[in-house]
Amino acid sequence: MCMAWGWYLQNDMQIFIVSIPILYLYNQRKRFAYILIWVIVGLSLIYNFVEVQRNSYVTVAHRADFAKWATYFLDVYTKPWTRCPPYLYGLTLGLLYMEWIEEEKNKKENKGFFGKVKERM
Question: Which end of the chain has fewer surrounding CB within 10 Å, N or C?
Fold first, then answer.
């Protein structure tokens, strides 16, 4: 393994590809896109919890725990459906930031009485 980080690059690319339909949906129906993002995050967290409980994975706190870490790393940690919550949090914050920027721009354009008078002209 000369590129130990390669698993993360393919995860990132797969999650990016999944985010494209989510962004298209956001363009059509914002609220539904946010709901879909949080449903995916919830399903990912539930999957993580179930897999960890079912296979009795433990926290690596002792040298003997590293034997379980290898199977956890391959079975759970490196899968895109378990690594997507941070990416989707970032996507959500990016969308919220974009909405905030638009709101601020609209406030500046329509500031006070004179902004509305300009709009009518």
Answer: C
